[in-house]
Amino acid sequence: MLNGQVKISWWALRLSYGLVPIVAGLDKFTNLLTHWTKYLSPVIQHLLPTSMSAVTFMYGIGVIEIVAGLLVLSNFVRWGAYVVCFWLIGIAINLVSTGQYYDIAVRDLVMAVGAFALAQLTEAGAGEGALGTGRSRRVFHPSVPSHNMGA
Question: What's the half-sphere exposure (Cβ side, CA atoms, 13 Å) at 66?
Fold first, then answer.
C-alpha cells in the first residue's frame, strides 16, 4: 500500500514540477499571468548589459524554465528536479533583493523543498517502473530503512 501511495505522490510532484515551469516559462513571452519584469530585482537589472532589456532577459528566463520543466518530464527527472529546486531558490533570492514580494519568496522556497523531495524520491527509486523516470542509484522498498538502501 505504501509503495502505491509513494508512486502517486511522486507522479503528483513530477507533473507539478514539470508542467508549472513550462507554463511559467511560456508566459514570459505572453505576460498573460502577470507582467514578469516587475519581479526583476533592480540589482539584476543593473547587472544586465546595456544592450539587454528586462523583457529580453525574461525571455531567456522563460527558455530556462521551459527546459527545466521538460527535464522533469523526460528521462532526467532527478536532474530536472534539482534544476527546478535551485532555480526556485534563485528566484526567491531575487525577490528578496527587490525589498518586496517576501510572501512570494517564501512560497518559492517551499516549492524548492518540494522539488528537492521529487529529486530525492526519484533517486530512491519511487518512480521505478514509471515511464521516463531516469536512472536511480538506489532501489526503493518501503520496508527497508533508508540507511540500508544499496548505493
Answer: 11
What is the distance between the alpha carbons of residues 126 and 136, in angstroms, rounded to a whole number?
Answer: 9
Q: What is the pTM of this model?
A: 0.81
Q: Are 21 and 61 in contact (CB under 8 A)?
A: no
pLDDT digits over 7-44, tens only? Answer: 999 999 999 999 999 999 999 999 999 999 999 999 99
8 phi and psi angles, rounded to 5 deg = -65, -45
Q: How far apart are CA 51 and CA 149, in angstroms?
A: 52
- Judged on CB neighbours under 10 Å (0-12, 13-18, 19+), 21 is buried
Tell the residue number behind the cell numbers 530525492, with chain if given.
120
Residues in the chain: 151
Number of other residues whose CB lies within 10 A of the CB of residue 46: 7
